[in-house]
Amino acid sequence: MEVIIENDAAAVAELAAHIIGELVRRKPDATLGLATGSTPVETYKALIKLHRETQLSFKNISTFNLDEYIGIAEDNAQSYRSFMQNKLFESIDIDVSRTYFPRCESDQNPAVAGLAYEHIISEVGGIDLQILGIGSNGHIGFNEPTSSFASKTRVKTLTPSTIADNSRLFADDEFQPHLAMTMGIATILATGKILLLATGRHKAQAVRDAVEGALSAICPASSLQLHQNAVLIVDSQAASKLKHTQYYQWARKENQIIKDKFGYFPSLGN
Ligand code: GLP
């Protein structure tokens, strides 16, 4: 894993948007995996800025969101489609007919919905770059602790800690789902490149477990240790429990020297 420590959340967003922008310039019909949650919002703002100021075009890309609640209509303000519409899609030149979510209606068999989502991902040739946040319990997407590393898109029951973390986004009298469809860990590991973003001290333990902890289903984000092109971009607060900070900073400088010398090259594994 490549670990990049930035001073603050703004610098995390700036760098993430730069990496995504580079990919879209190089491959205008790229397929992006997108995440919801507060963390990537600043990255989406930075992408909108790139679109407005540098004419970066998203008109030929396809997107797959990581997860979607079950029991909430697509046009409900709490759906993840609404979130993406508000935070990104309506401000860029994306073709919304190529933006996908793992939707499953309450009367639909989630196993069928999961297979259908996996099928569309493989039809477009897979996801080039996946953006991830991390839950304070180490989840990625809605792959809660104990999720199988071999899992594909499926229904998950949310843990009480995730429901509590996300309750801040729901009004007291509003329905908060406890079920969601999520890409599986194997779905995420099959993507070409992963950018995991984490900011704030409340993510420090999850980041430590993911990067320097044992490979374990109890910390789903530790599965990224199995990916050959996973980059963690974290601010100094989220990095505050890491033990090997100096090494990560040194390796970042050395990687930059190699990139400056040879230009873009696909990762050979971190
Ligand atoms: C949700 C999402 C995750 C996200 C996590 C962290 O549960 N399903 O994809 O990474 O929350 O969210 P935040 O960035 O708001 O801390």
Structural notes for this entry:
Helix content is 34%, strand content 16%. α7 (204-212) links the parallel β9 and β10 (230-235). The chain starts with a strand and ends in an 8-residue tail after the last helix. The protein has helices at residues 9-26, 41-54, 80-87, 110-123, 160-166, 185-189, 204-212, 245-262, and strands at residues 2-6, 31-34, 62-65, 67-69, 99-100, 129-132, 154-157, 179-182, 193-198, 230-235. The protein is globular. The strands form two sheets. The protein has a seven-stranded parallel beta sheet, sandwiched between helices. A three-stranded antiparallel beta sheet has the order 4-8-7. It is built from eight helices and ten strands. The chain has 270 residues and is of the alpha/beta class. 2-amino-2-deoxy-6-O-phosphono-alpha-D-glucopyranose (GLP) binds at residues 35-39, 66-67, 133-135, 141-142, 162, 166.
Describe this structure in a few short sentences.
The chain is an alpha/beta fold and about 270 residues long.
Main features:
seven-stranded parallel sheet; 270 residues; three-stranded antiparallel sheet; alpha/beta; binds 2-amino-2-deoxy-6-O-phosphono-alpha-D-glucopyranose
